[in-house]
Design a protein that fits this description.
Blueprint: H1 2-10, E1 14-16, E2 21-24, H2 31-42, E3 46-49
Length: 64
């Protein structure tokens, strides 16, 4: 289990062990990534797709 989490993080997944959720990065889904998701789902993790890039809009909003 630890190895799967470690490798998933290297592939760009965000894993929250407390909430048991996995956030999948956008882009192509490889057979390896599908296998990681299947293994983690067996341990009760929910897989979510990350559709927004967190760093895309890091500009400051003008204030009054």
């Amino acid at each position: 289990m630890y190895n799967t989490i470690y490798r998933s993080r290297k592939k760009g997944y965000n894993i929250n062990r407390k909430e048991r959720t996995i956030t999948r990065p956008g882009g192509e889904l490889t057979a390896t990534m599908v296998e990681y998701e299947r293994i983690l789902a067996q341990f009760g993790y929910n897989v979510q797709l990350k559709i927004f890039d967190e760093n895309a809009n890091n500009h400051k909003h003008p204030g009054p």
